[in-house]
Amino acid sequence: QVQLVESGGGLAKPGGSLRLSCAASGFTFSDYYMSWIRQAPGKGLEWVSYICTSNSCKHFADSVKGRFTISRDNAENSLYLQMNSLRAEDTAVYYCARVSGAKYCTNGVCRPTSFDYWGQGTLVTVSS
Amino acid sequence: QSALTQPRSVSGSPGQSVTISCTGTSSDVGGYNYVSWYQQHPGKAPKLMIYDVSKRPSGVPDRFSGSKSGNTASLTISGLQADDEADYYCCSYAGTYTLVVFGGGTKLTVL
Questions:
Q1: pLDDT at site B2
Q2: Among A9, A22, A30, B79, whose CB has the most other CB atoms within 10 angstroms?
Q3: How far is CA B45 from the centre of its chain?
Q4: What are the tens digits of pLDDT across the range A52-63?
Q5: B97: pLDDT confidence band, cut at 50, 70 and 90?
Q6: pLDDT at B98
Q7: In what helix (H) or strand (E) does residue A124 lie, and over which residues does it extend?
Q8: Residue B101 with chain A: CB contacts under 8 Å
């Protein structure tokens, strides 16, 4: 069965850094786009970033652009989120999610439209 | 403020039907047939219930159905059960720049 297990969350100071990891199993990781989605305490969901099957295409929400980077290691079945210049508003549970096979494809480029499996999340708290 | 507008709460009795709306714009819900819905129980990860407006993933009961008219998408849950009590989030593809947007979530209470 599909499993996604996040790790790496914790307490960081404003301006600090954290690296989140997501270990995937139960499916052919290299065949799927992957994404990070976050949820601030008591709030709704916010898409953060996605990466295609290789490290060649990535996309970020405006709120994290220039501060966060996403990467993957298909040999290790792992997804990563490097978070730099952290702010208080980055405090959230960060979910690793598999992008479903149904994507929006145009001119040879495909983009996520839904997320079919999610991990349990890892909490990131940014506070001094 | 979330990009998509959902009612904060809805309620229904066991066996009844409820509908949750999700209103966007022509740049997201109205512009693409890529609306998805997620169920989230307290302290748990979201679960995909509907994708591409009205398609159900394997394992999701047919009591859950989705539709769309103009800039508003809807999730209907028929034959309400106690375990349906959860938060529900809509999501829409929103173009190559914004990519995807979520609604603020709706808390479903089964009376």
A1: 67
A2: A22
A3: 15
A4: 998 888 999 999
A5: confident
A6: 83
A7: strand A122-126
A8: 47
Average pLDDT over residues B85-89: 97
pLDDT of A21 above 90: yes
Which residues from B are below 8 Å from A45, CB to CB?
38, 46, 89, 91, 102, 105
Q: Among residues 40-99 of chain A, which lie with CB inside 8 Å of chain B?
A: 44-47, 50, 59, 61, 95
Q: Do B45 and A111 touch (CB under 8 A)?
A: no
Query: What is the β-pairing status of strands B9-12 and B106-110?
Result: parallel
Q: What average pLDDT does the segment A97-121 reach?
A: 89
B1: which chain A residues are within 8 Å (Cβ-Cβ)? none
Residues sharing a CB contact under 8 Å with residue B107, sequence separation 6 or more, in sequence order:
B8, B9, B10, B86, B87
- Residue B28: closest C-alpha in chain A: A113
Contact by Cβ (8 Å): A123, A20: no
Chain B environment of A108 (Cβ under 8 Å): none
At A122, list the tokens: 């890892």
Cross-chain Cβ contact B93/A119 below 8 Å: no
- Nearest chain B residue (CA) to A5: B45
Region B63-75: mean pLDDT is 97
Q: What's the rounded Cα separation, in Å, for the pair A96 and B10?
A: 29
